[in-house]
Amino acid sequence: MKTTPPVPVSEPIQVSDRFRATVQDSILELERNAARDEQVLKTLTNPDHRRRQMLLIQKQLDKAFRLHEMLGRLAVRKRVVR
Q1: Quick check: is 51 in a domain?
Q2: Model pTM?
Q3: Which residue among 9, 22, 27, 39 has the highest number of C-beta atoms inside a 10 angstrom radius?
Q4: How many domains would you assign to the chain?
Q5: Confidence of residue 4 (pLDDT cuts 50, 70, 90)
Q6: How far, rounded to the nearest angstrom, does the alpha carbon of residue 10 sit from its chain's CA centroid?
Q7: Does the residue 42 lie in any domain?
Q8: Long-range CB contact pairs, 9-16, < 8 A, 24+
Q9: Which of 11-15, 17-21, 31-35, 51-55 has the lowest mean pLDDT?
Q10: What is the arithmetic mean of pLDDT over 54-61?
């Protein structure tokens, strides 16, 4: 069975404008949610609730960071006009 080699990291990933915009929107939403959840964290008194809230914030920011890294590797493909 033949496998295709992985795409080198230095080579951009070709995507549509719409996909790139969706990734950007996802990053912004994750960052907004994390900021909102940080405000909620200030109101929590139960140690377990605070721990879980901090984990939620961390996961949101981690995912936003990963998407941001991916966004840097994306290139919008040229549209072919017929």
Answers
A1: yes
A2: 0.78
A3: 27
A4: 1
A5: low
A6: 19
A7: yes
A8: 9/73, 12/73, 12/74, 12/75, 13/70, 13/73, 13/74, 13/75, 14/75, 14/76, 14/77, 15/74, 15/75, 15/76, 15/77, 16/76, 16/77
A9: 11-15
A10: 98
In 3D space, the residue among 38, 40, 29, 39 whose CA is nearest the CA of residue 58 turns out to be 38
Structure tokens at 60: 């949101």
Residue-level length of the chain: 82
**Token digits of residue 75:** 């290139």
Residue 7 located in a structural domain: no
Q: Give CA 57 to chain center in angstroms.
A: 13
